[in-house]
Amino acid sequence: MNFSELNLSNEILRAVQEMGYEDATDIQIGSIPSILEGKDVTGRSNTGTGKTAAFGLPLVQRAADNPDRSSVLILAPTRELALQITGEMRKYSKYIPNISVACIYGGQPMNGQIHALKKARIVVGTPGRIMDHMRRKTLKLDHLKTIVLDEADEMLNMGFIDDIRTILQSTPDDRQTILFSATISPEILKITKEFQTDPSFVKTDKGQKTTTKIHQSFYYVPKDQKEDALKLLIEYSKPKKALVFCNTKRMVDDLADSLSESGYHAIGLHGDLKQNQRNAVMRDFKSGRSRILVATDVAARGIDVDNVEAVFNYDVPQELEYYIHRIGRTGRAGHEGASYTLVSGRMQLNQLHMVERYIGETIEERKIPGKESIQKNQSTIFEDTLKNAVDSGVDPKWQEFVESLTQKGYSAVDIAAVLCEKAQKKNKRLSSIHDIEYRPAPKNSRGYEKGGSHNRGRGNNHTGRSYKGHGSKSRGGKNYSRSNKKYQKVTVTD
């Protein structure tokens, strides 16, 4: 279905066309008409399916018809996702006058946010900072028409449930409530029952948790050889842009430093970085100055970068849902992608098998490529590049140059060989990496460990924890939760 068939205004259609959107995705087709009509919507959709436009396009149109400040509030679990949504909303509203979008999140001065809120019709923010402004009365929700909970499952995982309830209870009863989530868990259904009225359920992924566009594989390697394994995989696959996921902030720092010292254009992202540092990291990655981004799961939420060709799981994710979010960064917009997971020891192997059960697929075990096969693969790639260049046509200037050398007695074959040698400089990075002896994963470990957990792989962490290991900071500030129209102090995790 084309966007012109979805009753969107000409101004929005013009913006959509400029952004290169053509046909609407399933989640957009299922959501946009209901949101335009003011209905409550609950959507289940995987990352990379266009859900921001699914709620963003119709809400920009509704905001254009409503002169009130803060008529739309969009809640996101992380500042990165909030920034991404804000950028998209501004693009959608490019040709609509007087639509201001404010982005509200922790780590930024309050004064600038207060100024932005004075004229914003659309507010995007993280729950903790939204609560701060509610407490200061710099954000009033009396005239709110629509609230969106984006990546609701992640907000619940991060312990924002009390904040979400407080915010929802502070809004008008007749508001429109929109919820998007990668999974529709019992906790999500409880939220929909409590705060939505006869919602339309849009489940566009037909229950599938991954995409066939992503080639998934895992590699069983000793823990002390993981860095060499990662570097060998990078050398073999040669991605133009890649994401490497680690489970801890310290590992992000250590691995990013190691890759950089080995000559890779790598940079790290985690929750301890200041906002200006995070912005600089994302600018470098998006522009291609840094081709490899090493990140924790929570810090990477909201990263929306085109043409990520590969995702490397340096650690098996601690939560099953994170595997979906990680590999979903590649294989987007119809392109193919690849995911590579490094597994060390039986505990991680059991966790990987739990991931397989969760996604309903078998992840192929493969052998780490050796340096000899990498060099052969790189030669093949170089040969294909040369053939394509010749087939595309040779610049007459350089033909004349080579002919002038042959007239001086030099062989054309020797000239070409010298140029190839110079073009294919010795790979110093590869020479410093150690080959890894192939030892296949134990075959008797498929399934849960004896007496192990069946709680979807959450280990000892459950919904509501503060994620201190992933960079979230418990601010412990005084915020307010409405209960029987009275306010009480609560602790906010932001």
Explain this structure.
A motif (Q motif) lies at residues 1-29. One of its GO terms (cellular component) is cytosol. Residues 1-29 form the DEAD-box RNA helicase Q domain. This protein has 494 residues and is α/β, with parallel strands linked by helices. It has two domains: 3-203, 3-Layer(aba) Sandwich (Rossmann fold), CATH 3.40.50.300; 214-371 and 433-445, Rossmann fold. 41% of the residues lie in helices and 15% in strands. The chain contains 19 helices and 16 strands. Strands 3-4-2-5-6-1-7 form a seven-stranded parallel sheet, sandwiched between helices. A seven-stranded parallel sheet has the order 10-11-9-12-13-8-14, with helices on both faces. Strand 12, helix 14 (320-327) and strand 13 (337-343) form a beta-alpha-beta unit. Helix 2 (26-36) packs parallel to helix 3 and helix 6 crosses helix 8 (161-169). The model is unreliable at 446-494 (pLDDT under 50).
